[in-house]
Specification:
five-stranded antiparallel beta sheet, two-stranded antiparallel ribbon, alpha+beta, 318 residues
């Protein structure tokens, strides 16, 4: 069978990686628990700033010390890492957190057969912690009240237009810095399919990015309150940011259209549900509710598309 277009693109992309500049930092760490690098980092999705293939990942990010490109390769119980750019040392130092090394699932005991099976099949699924609050907020705001594919296209277009080339001469883009987005007029966002309301949320957040980043120093409950204090950032947005930027294993995305149905189908076999019923079903797993949601996702569990129409409030996000 001939290789798919995606495989050919990845092969060509990897060849360009080999030709990249020598890394500024090289290191390794040994995970203290099982790790599936690919599944763990796919919490951030893929696009111009991250590529994942099996147990290997490339990530372009903006650290407190400046832009960095991070290459991770997990094999033989070790993660080998290379980093480029002014933020290389910071990215390398925090790579274990990014890979879920600080994630503690010792108190998680799935009672439902579906969850127990998913955990058994994916013991290396960790909750990552990127420590990049504003970086996580931008694509999440773009995803408010629009289809997922449209949100991905908008964010990719924004990064390609306003981001910067990744360090290391590699074909990736670092997401745009807060100061860039803070001075970008709202009408510029229209080019990326982002209307004024979402654009202004991003611009206001960019102007207060320092306050947002303080969330990484807080306990998780206080951090979510800090996030929700920003105009245009409601529970759905705050929860999504908390899961990836802060490694919150308990944040629940209330207000998502599909999530209540998927949770109910996985945990009680019902094709349609509500936020209220979803929270009831997840309550026994408090402290690990986001972990349950991720397991349902990686298990590929989705509710059938038939069923009664739900109230409009279940179609909204923030």
């Amino acid at each position: 069978m001939s290789p798919s277009l995606e495989e050919e693109a990845l092969s060509a992309w990897s060849s360009r990686w080999i030709a990249a500049d020598a890394p500024d930092v090289s290191a390794r760490f040994h995970p203290s628990k099982p790790l599936d690098l690919g599944l763990t980092l796919m919490a951030f999705g893929s696009g111009p700033s991250q590529r994942v293939r099996g147990q290997e990942a490339w990530r372009a990010t903006l650290t407190p010390d400046g832009p960095a490109t991070l290459h991770l390769n997990h094999s033989e119980n070790a993660v080998e890492l290379e980093a480029w750019g002014p933020g290389a040392s910071w990215a390398a130092r925090h790579a274990p957190e990014l890979c879920g090394e600080t994630d503690d699932d010792s108190g998680f005991q799935p009672a439902h057969r579906t969850l127990a099976s998913a955990r058994h099949r994916h013991p290396g699924l960790r909750m990552p912690r990127s420590l990049g609050v504003f970086e996580a907020l931008v694509p999440t705001v773009i995803g408010q009240k629009v289809p997922t594919d449209a949100a991905h296209h908008s964010y990719r277009s924004l990064v390609m237009a306003l981001g910067t080339p990744a360090p290391g001469s590699f074909p990736m883009r670092v997401p745009p810095a807060a100061e860039v987005l803070a001075r970008t007029p709202y009408w510029t966002f229209h080019r990326f399919g982002i209307e004024r309301r979402r654009a202004e949320v991003i611009i206001r957040a960019a102007r207060s990015a320092g306050r947002l980043e303080e969330a990484v120093t807080m306990d998780l409950a206080s951090a979510r309150k800090r996030l929700e204090a920003f105009p245009g950032v409601g529970p759905w947005t705050a929860a999504r940011v908390a899961v990836t930027a802060l490694g919150d294993p308990d944040a629940v995305q209330v207000g998502d259209y599909n999530l209540p149905h998927a949770v109910a189908y996985a945990l009680e076999g019902k094709a349609r549900s509500t936020d209220e019923r979803m929270l009831e079903l997840l309550e026994p797993y408090r402290g690990h509710r986001a972990r349950v949601i991720r397991l349902i996702g990686v298990a590929g569990i989705t509710a059938p598309s038939f069923g009664p129409r739900m109230p409009l409030r279940n179609f909204t996000r923030d």
